Amino acid sequence: MLAAILAGDQQMFHELIRPYERTVYMVALGMLKDESEAEDASQEAFLKAYCALGKFRAESKFSTWLISIAINEARSRLRRKKTGRTESLDAGWDSADSGDDFISVSPALLTDWREIPSEALERSEVRGLLTTAVTELPPIYREIFVLRDVEELSVNEAAAVLGISVALVKVRLHRARLMLQKKLVPLLKGVTFLESAERTRRRRFLWF
Amino acid sequence: MVLECKHVWDYISGYLDGGLDPELLREVQKHLDHCEVCSAVLDSTRNILVLTADERTFTLPLGFSERLHERLERAFADGLQTET
After folding, report:
1. Distance between CA A130 and CA A45 in Å, rounded?
2. What is the pLDDT of residues A28-71, one digit of tens each?
3. Chain A neighbours among B 5-34 (CB < 8 Å)?
4. Residue B70 touches chain A, beta carbons under 8 Å
5. Residue A29: CA count within 13 A, CB half-sphere
6. What burial letters (b/e) apply to A10-20, b meaning 16+ CB within 10 Å?
7. Nearest to B72 among A14, A112, A170 (CB)
8. DSSP 8-state class, residue B4
9. What are the distances in angstroms from CA A202 to CA A120, A189, A205, A208, B47?
């Protein structure tokens, strides 16, 4: 397929990239936090990948190479935006949760959110709470969470595209997950609690 | 080795990824089996990951794919080439 594209078959490029559209967009969105900018960055990343296709070497995975291009595109946009803006990228989290990879994160200690997720997920507000919480993660945690838990890259592939060690991927992923748990459990508890109260009422209604 | 709760929290992510070595896994499992707080932390974190992986949670904007391929077509028509 690559050889055909390099030989001039541009239509094949459409087919080549189809499986990776979502991943490239989610990576860009995870870094840029703005849907229309993430879409534009994704398009640019695919155009750049097309131009650079001759430099792709088969010893790396095509997805790894493509995601690296998307990350670079998003990073250069972030750099451009930074010159002129000083607001914290970490807004919404207390400082202990932000930059340092070695401060431990404590989870929320609530024992009453064990709902079956498929039931909870039927509610769009639950999905909304989750996507907002991910968007609000500090950047280094957001990018690893998107790669591993949204797009389900392996630890090794995530380390490769981010240019960090496997050990650091694991540390950051752990922190990202616990930060989300801490933020979401108190919010989701309310949502699912209402749900089970409704079910209890329905059950009562049926039985009595 | 007896693990305290706050040490068990450090292994939640590794536990969910199946990345703990057998001896540590046994200790963490032993703790989880009798500690309601830690097993709730584990369950809720796992729930969040299940929600995250559900394809309805993070979705492409409507028309994303069409707009992408149109833009590529325009670029091809304008003479975009692979670099040699």
Report:
1. 27
2. 999 999 999 999 999 999 999 999 999 998 778 899 999 999 99
3. 6, 9-10, 12-14, 16-17, 19
4. no
5. 23
6. bebbbebbeeb
7. A14
8. -
9. 17, 20, 5, 10, 25
Q: Would you call A35 and B41 a contact, using CB atoms and an 8 Å cutoff?
A: no
Residues A201, A122 share a domain:
yes
- Mean predicted confidence (pLDDT) in A140-153: 95
Contact partners, residue A29, CB within 8 Å, separation at least 6:
A35, A38, A146
- By Cβ distance, the residue of B36, B57, B75 closest to A131 is B57
The parent domain of residue A37 ranges over 2-82
Match 């394809």 to its residue by tokens: B55
CA distance A141 to A185: 18
Both A71 and A145 in one domain: the answer is: no
Is the CB of residue A83 less than 8 Å from the CB of residue A154? Answer: no
**Tally of residues, chain A:** 208
| Residue A55 within any structural domain of the chain | yes
| Site of tokens 């039927």 | A122
DSSP assignments along A114-140, one per residue = ---HHHHHTSHHHHHHHHHHHHTS-HH
ipTM: 0.91
Q: How many domains does chain A have?
A: 2
What global pTM score does this model have?
0.83
> Which residue do the tokens 């398009």 mark?
A43
* Residue B83 is assigned to a structural domain of this protein: no
Which residue range(s) make up the domain with B72? 5-77
Which residues, other chains included, contact B65 with Cβ-Cβ below 8 Å and sequence gap of 6+? A18, A21
Q: Does A111 touch chain B (CB under 8 A)?
A: yes
Closest partner residue to B82 (CB to CB) among A54, A112, A117 is: A54
